[in-house]
Amino acid sequence: MTNELQNDLLIRACRRQNVERTPVWIMRQAGRYLPEYRAIREKNDFLTMCRTPELAAEITLQPVDIIGVDAAIIFSDILVVPEAMGMSLQFHEGRGPVFEHPLRTQADFDALQRVDIATELGYVLDALGLVRKALSGRVPLIGFAGAPWTLAAYMVEGQGSRNFVEIKKVMYCAPKMLTRLLDQLSNAVADYLIAQAAAGAQVLQVFDSWAGMLTPAHFHEFSLPYLKKIVEKVKPTGVPIIVFARDAGHSFQALADIGADVLSVSWEEDLATARMAVQGKVALQGNVDPCVLFSNPEIIRKEVVRCLQVFGGEPGHVFNLGHGILPQTPVANARAFVDAVKEESRRTRTLLEKQSN
Ligand code: 1CP
Question: Parallel, antiparallel, or unpaired for β 96-99 and 89-92?
């Protein structure tokens, strides 16, 4: 585990240190847009892929080799934590992951188990170890987990939802039941992230994909304090922490104060506004519209240059999309995006150095 990183751009950017060029990775970079992923998926169901360390490791490495990103992110899912708490998870083709028995009654909430990470989620830790070995320091490895609010929403809804009526009913009618669950999830997620760091994760990201379903006031009550608690518990590992609170731009200022190293900005937000709100307290990641990858390399390059200009060569920038890469994305365009970031950010850097000499 002690191998030196040959490419530590992401780690340095997370810490707002100087970099020769801006690091780039893509949320959901290991996935259905890659024919190499689909080839494995044809022979295995999704949850088996998550639970088999050799398969998870192979899939994790694919985008590093195929599109040249500056980080690997462990192939897994945010829903493995509720599963480890005793909720049976199924994967329905075309519908995604589904909890067979969503939490609806007090008894359902009471039946949740305390997670023993090593036994219940040991397969993720094993996969992290395999990936670290296979990478042998080429790029850093990112571990991740879902944020308590987003996980609670899935656990109560049972699956993705449009209006989140079920979890909102709990929020309005039984807030104590919800906050108890959020506390339980915060502890499990923090322990899980700490275990991932010990198993080899060199950066950690928390996905609050459904933060934007909350009003600003409810975000402050039902999401932010739990994100903060997780960051405080994980911080002593020394591993940089990225928080992706999707569509919670109303709270950038507050999010900048929870102790995370990086905030990930969704594509719906304005990067310059985010920069102003956080006042250099954290690095920023994002926020390219995933749909720009359906255009062409010339347009993609223009979008990359636009984002670089917002930063003006200042440190603390991680290139990424503003949400996950979409399954129909042409692989050549994903590669063009990564190449454009590498070339254009190096050019910006060189220009700035010339200007300051
Ligand atoms: O082959 C398939 O059909 C499975 C598709 C798939 C993949 C590739 C799912 C089902 N999960 C994943 C992997 C995954 N999930 C990663 C891998 C690492 C990477 O390359 O980035 C990560 C980080 C996740 C995290 C995840 N799962 C989130 C948060 C990120 C986000 O995009 O907002 C969420 C919301 C999930 C739930 C989930 N898992 C899968 C689907 C289709 C969904 C969304 C379901 C829904 O909301 O309806």
Answer: antiparallel
